[in-house]
């Protein structure tokens, strides 16, 4: 211990000696600046001992000051005509330390960059003009002569005055200018391209920009809905592409809860959507939800030897959060529709409640499978973690196109006035693999483009695995399916849209200037019954086929005419100014959104 403390004292002493050895004399430039002022000397000595790095910087700066002062003296002598300019300067010529100004620094740079030799230039000027200098070191006005400017190597500019110059097209700027921000992902470039047609009134800004009037993002996270307030001034209005409570129908659990609460009847609810069980491990009574599903699963299983388990075992944390008030009365006696079951299989779907694009969706037929899947997501499968699930009955007997599964994607618009519209065109999404209940391959059962685009046979049967409604009808006729979709299916879609938007309030707090485009997904079973599968908050707008390259730009442009244009530029008719997004069999001046009603 004694030796260790002795070593510390020795090191401390050596450090103090090093600091004391540093003096003003080691920094010669600083010494020159401070030789006339003892107070400055003491201050600088303190800085050298305590902050040697700062002293080094000051020394370098002082060196620049010294060089500048010498140059200034030579410049003054040159102007007085006493000696040649910019001669080499010695340290003895530095006398009075004066800090430089910005304008003089610029002059020094000009001298450095001058391609002509300054000394020769001054001599030639003296010989040509033979100036006589006044005794007071200035040239009287009467004795001044014209100075001939030396010709440089640049050739004279030849101007053809007879040739008329082209007239410049000056773009008229409008004082009304609004800012929009488009978030990354989901083909945000298309949204920008459509808004650029309104560039006379709109300009794009980055996310960090404070004053944004219209914001389009993939998610509503980070949006301050308190900003959506009424305003007489156009410039203080703010519009988002989401409503605050859109999850009441756009989350898989929210849609089921809204319909169950609206109908308060099991039979009616599960006549619109396939049978659903909601298991939310964040709620206090999740054990009741698990038991409810397992009992129904076991009681209605047509294959008695499918599963060895008769219950699900979870040792998860029991929360104190209250559960949603959902009435499942009568579930024990509920009979599923015949297209949901098959004598050879008993398939169900597990879906994370808030995920989209087919992520986390699994087909299963045993309790062992679903227990393993839920545990893996609960504890975080890869980078994912989920505590809320929807278990939905699989439609085991769907209507097929050429032996392959399909669904229907429709677009619904809700405006700032809470009017809702249905786009007059939709499209069919197909699987590229032959349908089979024996195989649980997700490329067979999930028709989302986000899933299908990774399949090996993507695009083999249709461009982008997508069909227009017209081609869809032709294929139905070819396979002798007696079903007129426009007369039988389309009216049913309108009814379901009205039902879902009447089942809840997306704008409970009466915010102003919200808008949202929703994606409704439907399926048709082999009995030609239409089923609502889910509602998407941010439907895919990727132009993954020639069909979508035609439909999606027109869909968005017509949506903005009903929302963005009405809120911010109500007096401007963009229909006459903008190039049209043409859609077959529709007039360019026609808005393709059909109004269905007003949200409750």
Report the biggest beta sheet as strand number plus sense, adding barrel if it closes.
7 strands, antiparallel
Proportion in β-strands: 5-15%
Q: Classify the secondary structure makeup into a structural class.
A: alpha+beta
Output mean pLDDT.
81
| General shape | extended
What multimeric state do the chains show? single chain
Radius of gyration from the CA trace? 40 Å
Give keywords.
600 residues; alpha+beta; 7-stranded antiparallel β-sheet; 4-stranded parallel β-sheet
Description:
This protein is of the alpha+beta class. The protein is built from 18 helices and 15 strands. Strands 9, 10, 11, 12, 13, 14 and 15 form a seven-stranded antiparallel β-sheet that branches. A four-stranded parallel β-sheet has the order 2-1-3-4, with helices on one face. A hairpin with a 5-residue loop joins β13 and β14. α3 crosses α4. The N and C termini lie far apart (82 Å). Mean pLDDT is 81; it is low at 82-89, 91-118, 130-135 and 168-175. InterPro entries: TTL/TTLL_fam (IPR004344). It comes from Paramecium octaurelia. Residues 1-22 are annotated as: Disordered.
């Amino acid at each position: 211990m004694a030796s260790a403390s002795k070593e510390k004292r020795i090191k401390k002493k050596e450090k103090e000696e090093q600091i004391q050895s540093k003096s003003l004399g080691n920094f010669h430039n600083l010494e020159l600046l401070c030789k006339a002022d003892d107070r400055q000397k003491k201050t600088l000595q303190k800085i050298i001992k305590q902050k040697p790095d700062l002293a080094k910087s000051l020394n370098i700066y002082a060196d620049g000051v010294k060089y500048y002062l010498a140059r200034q003296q030579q410049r003054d002598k040159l102007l007085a005509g006493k000696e040649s300019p910019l001669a080499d300067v010695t340290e003895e010529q530095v006398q009075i330390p004066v800090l430089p100004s910005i304008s003089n620094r610029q002059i020094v740079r000009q001298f450095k960059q001058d391609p002509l030799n300054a000394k020769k230039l001054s001599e030639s000027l003296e010989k040509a003009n033979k100036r006589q200098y006044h005794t007071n070191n200035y040239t009287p006005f009467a004795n001044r002569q014209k100075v001939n400017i030396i010709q440089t190597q640049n050739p004279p500019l030849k101007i053809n005055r007879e040739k008329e110059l082209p007239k410049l097209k000056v773009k008229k700027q409008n004082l009304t200018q609004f800012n929009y921000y488009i978030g990354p992902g989901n083909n945000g470039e298309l949204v920008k391209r459509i808004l650029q047609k309104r560039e006379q009134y709109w300009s794009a800004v980055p996310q960090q920009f404070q004053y944004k009037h219209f914001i389009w993002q993939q998610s509503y996270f980070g949006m301050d809905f308190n900003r959506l307030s009424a305003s007489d001034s156009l410039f203080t209005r703010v519009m988002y592409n989401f409503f605050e409570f859109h999850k009441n129908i756009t989350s898989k659990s929210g849609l089921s809860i809204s319909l169950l609460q609206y109908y308060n009847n099991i039979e009616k609810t599960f006549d619109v959507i396939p049978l659903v069980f909601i298991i939310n491990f964040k709620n206090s009574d999740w054990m009741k939800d698990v038991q409810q599903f397992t009992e129904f699963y076991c009681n209605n299983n047509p294959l008695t030897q499918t599963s060895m388990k008769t219950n699900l075992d979870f040792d998860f944390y029991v929360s104190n959060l209250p559960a949603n008030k959902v009435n499942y009365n009568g579930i024990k006696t509920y009979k599923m529709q015949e297209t949901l079951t098959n004598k050879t299989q008993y398939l169900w779907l597990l879906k994370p409640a808030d995920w989209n694009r087919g992520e986390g969706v699994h087909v299963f037929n045993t309790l062992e499978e679903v227990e393993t899947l839920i545990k893996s997501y609960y504890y975080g499968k890869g980078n994912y973690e989920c505590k809320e699930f929807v278990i939905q009955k699989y439609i085991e007997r769907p209507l097929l196109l050429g032996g392959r599964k399909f669904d229907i994607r429709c677009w619904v618009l809700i405006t700032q006035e809470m009017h809702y519209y249905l786009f007059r065109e939709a499209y069919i999404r197909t699987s590229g693999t032959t349908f089979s209940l024996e195989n649980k391959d997700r490329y067979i059962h999930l028709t989302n483009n986000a899933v299908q685009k990774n399949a090996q046979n993507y695009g083999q049967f249709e461009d982008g695995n997508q069909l227009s409604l017209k081609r869809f009808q032709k294929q139905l006729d070819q396979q002798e399916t007696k079903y007129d979709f426009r007369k039988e299916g389309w009216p049913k879609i309108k009814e379901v849209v009205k039902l879902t938007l009447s089942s809840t309030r997306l704008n409970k707090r009466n915010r102003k200037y919200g808008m949202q485009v929703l994606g409704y997904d439907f399926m048709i079973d082999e009995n030609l019954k239409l089923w609502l599968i889910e509602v998407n908050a941010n439907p895919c707008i990727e132009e993954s086929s020639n069909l979508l390259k035609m439909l999606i730009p027109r869909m968005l442009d017509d949506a903005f005419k009903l929302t963005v244009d009405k809120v911010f530029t109500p007096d401007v008719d963009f229909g006459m100014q903008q190039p049209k997004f043409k859609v077959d069999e529709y007039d360019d001046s026609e808005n393709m959104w059909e109004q269905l009603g007003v949200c409750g």
